[in-house]
Amino acid sequence: MKEVQGVRGSEIKRHYNFLSHYLVVFLPFIFFLLTAYAENPHEQYKQIQKDLKSHKKKLESVKKAEKSVIEELKKTNAELNEIENQLTLQRGKIKKIQGNISALQVDINRNKENLNLQNNLLKKRLRVLQKMSKTNDALLILMSGEDISQTVRSLRYISDISTYDQKLITKYKETVNILSEKQNNLKKLHSELKTEEEKLSRLETSLKEKKKERETLLVSVRKEKKNYEKMIKELQEASNRLLRIIQESERRESELRKKKGAKPKTKEEETVEDSGFARLKGRLPWPVNGTVAIQYGTQIDPLFNLPVFRSGIHIKASNGTPVKAVHEGKVVFADEFKGYGQLVIISHGSGYHTLYGNLSKIFLKNGVIIKEHTTIGEVGESNAIGASGLYFEIRYKGKPLDPQQWLKK
């Protein structure tokens, strides 16, 4: 039983919640890479390759955990089979003892019937003797024979009968006592076996519960493995798309160098590019009123002991709370995003972007130019914190920055 320890269900649950949060944080990053590829595509491609390697390591760890749980299940099944064999043997012993008790009970009943017959015979003899004593004819009856020898034989006969009856009674009493003692011993043994059976039954129940626990754990591990495999697949697809984007970017840059000039930008686009976002570090307004539930930065995965980077913060806030842009800019994405709910990404020029996730509603469209404090949507539910809240990121040329260093204290 001591071997059946393994990875505890509570650790799996904590890690699964952690994984759900990581998926929520990472999937928008994939889209962000695709929207900001022109700024630093080579660095982003390297980062995705690094993430792929890290998640493949995690997947191997999950596979090992799955294999370990399967081995523990095999051990548990073997223990269950052994307990069931012991239960079968114990039930057989109990059945045999019950048969012995039944046989002894029949024997006791038979001896009781014999005892009743002997008692009836002795009662009859006692009544005869009582009549003889009342009439004082007992001695006359004995002496009524033709000779003394006959009288002596009669006396001896009566004495033998009394002695025989007494022996029968004594023997029967001894037999009853012996059988009663055996019956008591068998009842005690039966009680002991019943206690042992209850003990084995409890052990069987415990093992079945352990088996159920291990099966639940196996389901969790396999589900987690499936999530990691899915994540790796999405990373690989993003890596391939980004590689194509890099190649296309290089091709366009080559063509642009051959051209004499570029098309002039609009006034609104120039305003976005010159928004001065870089000078606002530590002075940006908060996108929503609330408290930070999950911090930015690298943390160690508790199950796999591998570092996982959180690119933004989760701000706990009431459902339906208005979410506002921290600075003027251009909406480059405003739509549902897989694994993340409603998502808005705003470009503030000079390589700066802000990302707003877990929205229940979006009030803006892709491509519009907005001002600071513009309401972009409302807070929705967050899988990462198990409550309503906003996910918020700040990025510079694809690289995540700590939002709390940029927001007002």
Automatic annotation (TrEMBL):
GO terms for molecular function: metalloendopeptidase activity. Keywords: Coiled coil, Membrane, Signal, Transmembrane, Transmembrane helix. Residues 45-132, 176-252 form a coiled coil. The chain crosses the membrane at residues 21-38. Signal peptide: none annotated. Residues 310-403 form the M23ase beta-sheet core domain. Residues 253-274 are annotated as: Disordered. The keyword Amino-acid biosynthesis does not apply. PANTHER family: L-ALA--D-GLU ENDOPEPTIDASE, PEPTIDASE-RELATED. This is M23ase beta-sheet core domain-containing protein. It comes from hot springs metagenome.
